[in-house]
Design brief:
Helix content of chain A: 25-40%
Number of strands of chain A: 10
Strand order of the largest sheet of chain A: 6-7-8-3-9-10
Strand content of chain A: 25-35%
Radius of gyration of chain A: 18 Å
CATH superfamily of one domain in chain A: P-loop containing nucleotide triphosphate hydrolases
Oligomer: heterodimer
Number of helices of chain A: 8
Largest sheet of chain A: 6 strands, mixed
Number of strands of chain B: 10
CATH topology of one domain in chain A: Rossmann fold
Shape of chain B: elongated
Structural class of chain A: alpha/beta
Strand content of chain B: 5-15%
Largest sheet of chain B: 6 strands, mixed, barrel
Strand order of the largest sheet of chain B: 2-3-8-5-7-6
Number of helices of chain B: 20
Order of helices and strands of chain A: EEEHEEHEHHHEHEHEEH
CATH class of one domain in chain A: Alpha Beta
Order of helices and strands of chain B: HHHEHEEEEHEEEHEHEHHHHHHHHHHHHH
CATH architecture of one domain in chain A: 3-Layer(aba) Sandwich
Chain lengths: 247, 610
Amino acid sequence: MTSTAPVLQTAGLCKTFGTGAALVRAVDGVDLDVATGEIVAIMGPSGCGKSTLLHLLGGLERPTSGTIELAGRRISELSERSLARLRREAIGFVFQGFHLMDELTAVENVELPALLAGRSAHAARARATELLEQVGLADRAGFWPAALSGGQRQRVAVARALSNRPLIVLADEPTGNLDSAATVEVLRLFEALHEAGQTLVIVTHDSRIAATADRLISMRDGGFIDETRMTGGTRGDLGRLVGLGGQ
Amino acid sequence: MGRLLLLWRLAARDLRRHPVEAVMVFLVIAAAATTLTVSFALNGVTSNPYQQTRSATAGPDVIADVIGAAPAAGSRGQPAGAPATQAAGTPAAIASLTGAPGVTAHSGPYPYLYSTIRFHGHRVDVVAEGRDQAPAPVDQPEVTQGSWVRPGGVVIARGFADALGVHVGDQARIGGQPLRVVGIAVTAAVPAYPSSLCHLACPMAVPPDMGLVWLMRSAAHQLAGQGSAISYLLNLKLASPADAPAFAAAHRGPPGAAPVLLYPWQSIRGADDALIQIEQVALQFGGWLLGLLALAGLAVLVGRRMTEQTRRVGLLKAVGATPATVAVVLLIEHLVLAAVAAATGLLAGWSLAPLLTSTGAGLVGSPGAPSLSPSTVLVVAAVALGVAAVSSLVPAVRAARTSTVSALADAPRVPPRRPLVIALSARLPVPLLLALRQLSRRPRRALLNAFSVAVTVIGIVAILASYARTSGTNPGISNLRADRLDELTAIITVMLAILAAVNTTFIAWATAADARFSSALERALGATASQVAAGLSTAALLPAVPAALAGIPLGVEVYHLLAPGQPLTVPPAWQLAAVFFLSLLAVTALTGVPSRLGARRPPAEILQEA
């Protein structure tokens, strides 16, 4: 499923906070290529700059220096409005804290990006229903987030990230708030996405999730210190791989 | 004692940590308290000048008035719109009163008639009273300039002369007759211009502002000979002036006889008080409106403060504070601020009141210093404390009920779910979609916003209605009542507009702050900063539209309630349309800045906080 053509590229990416003695280099000279259909896991200790890197990749923050290209388009120089359009059309976010709207049902949460992109209410709902089926939550479409388990909420969040058929999904600690069983639910979903050719960049502390990736990058003090290509893959053997028993 | 100290310390420290918010709470309550204090302090301030004028002019205790037969309306010398009276009055009809028990002195009967004065291009309705050259024992007007009446001369009441700009030596035409102004005088027998004699016995359904002039009896009869009806006034002094109302009630003529009207001096003083009363009504009305606006603004401010203090509430509870303690700390903070604001408002109102007590040139002497009665202090304090308590109550109870764990986690409150709004909004453009969903999350705030806009529009429309009603009936000449009311309504309008602007900004700021998480998420999902800002502004504008619409008829109705007996006055359509559109424009402009600032913060930063 993985193509060699990079969908996302960064060169010399830097992000600093503060000035003078208080200057912090959250991201320091990162060069990264992500191929279409590839799953890249970025691991590292807390505060090493993983989440900041993800926010830069998604256009939620602007880099201090360096470039980011998504599908050949330099996004680091786009206006706020163009960045918003890009997030809407080409990028899907999955957050550690799910970030679902509490007052919206599961299906209403999933259809939100499509509505923001100006799709008709009917088309947005149809796509949301399809995605909920895809993540195995068709029977929970009308549930409030509070009535869903952690794993189910994160699956809703993944479905929402896929609403506008993004080029890339950026996941920030997607299993950080989940128990083991819920973690497996999400891992299975990522596996299915991988099968379908979806490009994913996952920032995680969890070595089990990293084990499912095509490539594992280690990060420390804002920079990449190691990169491992996971050639074995995880297809069909996820449970054993993450130590949670077979399917 | 230790507990009280703790409560006080918590409240004081919190106020010190949020000085800007504390100052805002103080200012909005102080503005309402000042306005109310001024209105209450004006009670009875005109008594002093009226009594001085009464002593200086041997003012009558009762005036008897017999109205003469009027010729056809619109005839020469008669104001247009005057209905015909039923029976002709003669001096004999009131002359018998001079011998009534309790009467110690009298002057008259004097003839009077409605006429007009022409001076420097102005034509103004007047009451022309025929007098003798010799001084009268009762109601001898005090000449302040020139001399008393003489053949070929006219004396003009001072308030009216000032308004008309006439001076001793000028030539004026009364009912077409050229007369020289020989004097300017004041009297306590009729209320000062712009009320004038028409306040006592006016043949017009809607009395115009009439001036008072004195001329020789013969000149009055000469004017009557030109077609104007002649009536008569008799001034009576009583042994007991306090019994004047009872005397007047006892000597009214039997039904069917010539219409004799009796006026005790107290009713004339009351008419002079009307100059101040109209200010009092305007100020009280403005004060209550400002109080209501303060209530709406404070409710938002306090609610927002409570949202910010969720973690503090959790900490207090975690160390053993009861829900009641949490609520009491918050109430103490606002009650202390309200008490200081009430005291400031009382002091400021008392200091400002003398600026509004001038009775004009119609009376001699100056008004006494306005006084603050215990009831005024009580009402103003109760309003200030009530506003603070009511606005703090809901957030305080909510904070007290929050579970300790979720308060410590600073978990956002789950907003109410409105499936219908969500389904409907999905079919609308993005800013409207975001606005409707924002409104459904915070319906109480939307109501407060609507309330604030409605109160402001009601106030401004009522002021416009009063302006349309009270502007003088004699264009081109100054009118003390209308001029004073213009100044006052301008001040109240500005205060209302400022407080409403502050409220709208509070609401927009609080809404943008509360919506920061959902806005950041919407932006992460692809909404632009402009769409989010437009959504927040639209959320403020949507409730403002029906509120401004409802405020227009309510404003007209409120003015009607405040001015009973007056015909319904509706301001011109262009003014109403301007109020409507300007109020919406103001809401859009005022919410634009907080909305844009709120939408500018990087979404990643906000999402990481959540």
